[in-house]
Amino acid sequence: MRKFVVILLAALCVAWGSASLADTRYVTDELKVTLRRGESTGHKVIKMLPSDTRVEVLSTNEKNGYARVRTADGEEGYILSRMLKVERPARERLAEAEKMLEALRASPDKLRQELTTTKQELEQVSGAYNALQQENQKLSSEVTNLRKTSASAIKTATQRDKLLSENASLASQVEELQQFKQNLQNDEFRRWFLIGAVVLFAGIILGLIIPKMRKQRSGGFGSY
Question: What is the number of alpha carbons within 13 Å of residue 44 lying toward its C-beta?
């Protein structure tokens, strides 16, 4: 049953591939068919086309039943339309199917080996896919961590800038206080300097006045 299914599938594949070609025909199961110069038996024969010869149909004449065709080597001529089939001859398709079946029969070990190789390749692809998924998850986790780190770094930088600004403001205030202190010290120095000058000047004046006052008192006492 399996052999019959294989042959049937092979025949269907061949038939499907043949039918998908546009404007393509195959010479019928006749052994050989004449390709002529014109559309009658009176015209010269160009060549004899064996069965399964592929030709391209250029035009058809429904009245006399001839078709103008072109062979694979570029030769053009006329052939009876009834000698052309859309599908390849069944004999040729059957022969190909039998060859395929013989090839399958002759190489079961090769098929098993190819199947084993295919399974191994599939396992490798599956393993590579799983590895890629793990790598993708790892990269996604790293991206998330980087985003969190970046947000933290931005927040830290903002706080640092704020502290630097406050530090600059405090430094300016300290400088102003130092200048104010210096000014106060200068004013205090000037004030004490003036006091000292006044005391010195007063001492000089007193030093000049007191001796005179003593002399006057001494003279006054003596006159009595």
Answer: 3
- Count CA atoms within 13 Å of residue 214 on its CB side: 6
C-alpha neighbours within 13 Å on the C-beta side of residue 110: 5
In sequence order, which residues have a C-beta less than 8 Å from that of residue 25 and are 6 or more positions away? 54, 55, 56, 57, 67, 69, 84, 85, 86
Question: Which of the pair, 106 or 182, is modelled with greater confidence?
Answer: 182
Compute CA distances 188 → 178, 191, 198, whole Å: 15, 5, 15
Phi, psi of 73, rounded to the nearest 5 degrees: -90, 10
As a whole number, the mean pLDDT across the chain is: 76
Tell me which of 101-105, 120-124, 128-132 is least confident: 101-105
The per-residue pLDDT for range 184-207, each reduced to its tens digit, is 777 776 777 777 777 777 777 777
Give the Cα separation of 26 and 85 in Å (integer): 5
Q: What domains can be seen in the chain, in order of their start residue?
A: 2-106 (2.30.30.40)
Instruction: Please name which of 76, 97, 92, 107 lies closest in space to residue 26, comparing C-alpha atoms.
Output: 92
